[in-house]
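Q: Given only this backbone (265 positions), what sequence would you predict?
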C-alpha cells in the first residue's frame, strides 16, 4: 500500500525545512510554508541558487513566533505579522504584496548572508495565482510555482543506486514523501487522495542547482544533476525529479495516511 512517509514545511523560502507529523492545508498550501522570504533591496527574491549559505539557516515557526539559528550567529526571534512597511516582492514573474519584518531581521540576514537583504512575509489577503490552476481558488505562497511537491522513496532509492554516493531526501526539498510504490510511479499519476485530501499531479519538477547543495554544509558539487541528466532529461533540456501538486482544498495530511491513485495519467 502507498502511504505518506514524511511531510516537510519550509517556513522561509530556500532555508532549512522541518519534518512534520501532520500538516494542515489552507488555500496557499501547508500552513506556515514559505510565507516568509528573503529579498534584496529591490525586492527580488533570494534563494540558495545565488546564496548557498541559506541552507545553513534553520527557522522554527510556532504560530507567529519565528526563531532562526545558523552557525556562528546569535539566535534571532521575530514576531511575524501583517503590520509593517508594505512592499512589492518579486518571485520569478510574479509581483507579490509583502510586509517587511523589521530592522532586526534585516540586520541578522544581511550579516549572515553577507549581502544587503530583508525578511518579508506575504501580506494577508494577497492572492498569488498558481500555474496551471484547476480551481478558482488555486494559489501559492512564495514557493517557486506550486504549493506542494511529492517524491517517492523508491525514486530516491533508484537515483541513489546510480550515484557514486547516496544523497538524502532533503536535497530535493519535498513537501510530501510517499512509500510503497515503484520508482517514478508518481510520474504516472494525475489525481491522488492522501487521507481525505485530494491532490492533482500537475507538472514534473525540473531540478536546479539547489539539488547540488549539501543542506548541512552548503558545499556545492555536481550531483545529482549530472546523473539525472543521463536518464531524466525532458524535451526542454531540464531534468525532472518529483511532481508538483495542487490540493483540492483545506484539509490535513498526516504521516501514515494511505495514498490512493484516483486517476492515472
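A: Predicted residues:
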Amino acid at each position: 500500500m502507498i502511504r505518506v512517509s514524511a511531510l516537510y514545511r519550509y517556513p522561509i523560502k530556500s532555508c532549512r525545512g522541518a519534518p512534520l507529523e501532520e500538516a494542515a492545508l489552507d488555500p496557499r498550501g501547508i500552513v506556515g510554508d514559505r510565507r516568509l522570504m528573503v529579498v534584496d533591496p529591490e525586492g527580488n527574491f533570494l534563494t540558495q541558487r545565488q546564496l548557498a549559505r541559506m541552507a545553513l539557516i534553520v527557522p522554527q515557526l510556532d504560530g507567529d513566533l519565528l526563531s532562526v539559528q545558523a552557525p556562528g550567529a546569535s539566535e534571532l526571534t521575530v514576531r511575524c505579522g501583517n503590520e509593517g512597511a508594505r512592499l512589492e516582492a518579486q518571485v520569478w514573474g510574479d509581483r507579490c504584496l509583502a510586509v517587511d519584518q523589521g530592522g532586526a531581521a534585516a540586520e541578522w540576514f544581511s550579516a549572515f548572508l553577507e549581502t544587503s537583504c530583508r525578511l518579508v512575509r506575504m501580506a494577508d489577503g494577497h492572492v498569488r495565482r498558481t500555474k496551471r490552476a484547476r480551481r478558482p481558488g488555486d494559489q501559492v505562497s512564495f514557493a517557486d510555482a506550486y504549493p506542494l511537491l511529492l517524491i517517492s522513496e523508491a525514486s530516491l532509492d533508484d537515483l541513489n543506486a546510480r550515484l557514486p554516493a547516496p544523497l538524502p531526501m532533503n536535497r530535493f526539498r519535498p513537501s510530501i514523501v510517499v512509500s510503497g510504490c515503484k520508482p517514478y510511479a508518481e510520474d504516472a499519476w494525475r489525481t491522488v487522495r492522501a487521507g481525505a485530501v485530494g491532490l492533482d499531479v500537475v507538472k514534473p519538477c525540473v531540478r536546479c542547482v539547489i539539488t547540488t547543495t549539501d543542506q548541512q554544509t552548503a558545499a556545492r558539487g555536481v550531483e545529482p544533476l549530472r546523473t539525472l541528466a543521463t536518464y531524466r532529461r525532458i524535451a526542454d533540456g531540464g531534468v525532472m525529479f518529483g511532481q508538483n501538486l495542487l490540493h483540492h482544498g483545506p484539509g490535513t495530511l498526516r504521516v501514515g495516511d494511505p495514498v490512493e491513485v484516483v486517476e492515472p495519467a
